[in-house]
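User: Predict the complex.
Assistant: Input components as received:
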Amino acid sequence: MNRFKHLSAASVEDAAASLRRLGPTAHVIAGGSDLMGCLKDNLWMETPTAVIDLKTIPGLNAIREDADGLHLGALVTLTRIAESQTVQSGWPGLAEAARRTGSPLLRNMGTIAGNICQQNRCWYFRYPDKIGGRIDCVRKGGQRCLAVPGDHRYHSIFGAVKKCIAVNPSDTAPALVALGAVVRTDRRAIPIDGFFSAEMGAQSTVLEHDEIVTDILVPHQGPGAASAFRKIAFRQSIDFALVNCGVALTLAEGVVRTARICLNGVHNNPYRCTGAEEALVGGALTEETAAKAGELAVAGAKPLFQNAYKVPMARALVADTLLDCAPAA
Ligand SMILES: Cc1cc2nc3c(=O)[nH]c(=O)nc-3n(C[C@H](O)[C@H](O)[C@H](O)COP(=O)(O)OP(=O)(O)OC[C@H]3O[C@@H](n4cnc5c(N)ncnc54)[C@H](O)[C@@H]3O)c2cc1C
Ligand code: SF4
C-alpha cells in the first residue's frame, strides 16, 4: 500500500476544509472496511495521499426518532441498526438489510454512510495494480469495459451507464430507497432516488469531493405500513448480494395504497421497479399480484451471456419480498 497521511477530523466543517485543502487525493474514512481495500488496490486515477477520519467527530452516531421519522447519524454501525428496537419495529426492512450485510465483524466496523457510499465490486475494477499491472477500464479513466467481453456473471442485467456494467453492491441501499430516505450532507438534503450515480468515474454517488454525509432521515411510513428485505448470495454468512430487494408498502383493508420496490445487484445504481409498483397499487396483495409484480420488475432486463440467471432470481425475489409484507392470515 502507498503511504498516506491520516488526519483526525474534529468536526464536519474541519473534515470538509481538509478535503478542500488537500484536493482530490484525500478521502474520508469511517469504518474503513471498504476504503482500506480501495487504498490497497489503488482504485483512483490519482494515488491517494491522505485519509480524513470521521470517527473522531462527536455527534454523528445517534439513532433518534422524532415527528419526521428515523434519524441515523452517518457513523451509526450496521450492527446497531440491525439490533435497534426502534428500527426493527418501525422500519423492519432496513433492520433486516443491515442484519444481512457482511459478517458480524464487518457490521461492527461498517457505518450506514459508508455502506451507501461504497465502491462497486467489479473484479476488473478492483484488480490490484501491483499484480501484473493496472487495468484501466472506463470506470478508472480508460476507454473500454473489460467485463462486457470478459467475465460478467455478477454484472448488470439492465444495461450500462457510460459503458460500465458494474452493479451497486450495497445491502442497505435498496431498503433505504424503498423507504424513501433522504441523505443529508453538510450542505443539502438529497432524496435517495437521486443519491446514487455511476456517471462520476470511480465513485458511486452524486456527492461532491468535499461533501460529507451527516445523517440519513427515513420517514415515518404511515398507517398500515410494512417493509421487508431479502437477499440472495452464495454464502449466508458473508457475501455480497447476487440480487437483493427492498420493499415498502402501505395497506388499508387488504388493498395496497402505496408501494415502493427496489432491486440491487442488477444495475449500476439501485433499481426502482416503478412498473411493478404501479400495478400493485389499488389491488390486493396476493400470490398472483406479487408474481405479476415480479414479472413487471424484470420486464426491461437485457441480460448478457453469463448473467441471465439473475432475471428469474430477481423476479422471484420481488414476489417473495412483497409477500413478506402481507398481513398474517
Ligand atoms: C469481505 C467484505 C464483505 C462485505 N460484504 C458486504 C455485504 O454483504 N453487503 C454490503 O452492503 N457491503 C458489504 N461490504 C462492504 C462494506 O464493508 C460495507 O458496506 C460497510 O458498510 C462500509 O462502511 P464503512 O464505514 O466501513 O465505510 P468506509 O470504508 O470507511 O468508506 C466507504 C466509502 O464511503 C465514503 N464515506 C464514508 N463515510 C462517509 C461520509 N459520512 N460522507 C461521505 N463519504 C463517506 C468513504 O470515503 C469511502 O469512499 C463488504 C466488505 C468486505 C471487505
Ligand atoms: S464493468 Fe465497469 S468497473 Fe467493471 S470493467 Fe467494466 S467499466 Fe470497469
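The pocket of iron/sulfur cluster (ligand 2) is lined by residues 120, 122, 124-125, 137-139, 145-147, 155, 164-166 (CB under 6 Å).
Let me know if you want any component modeled separately.
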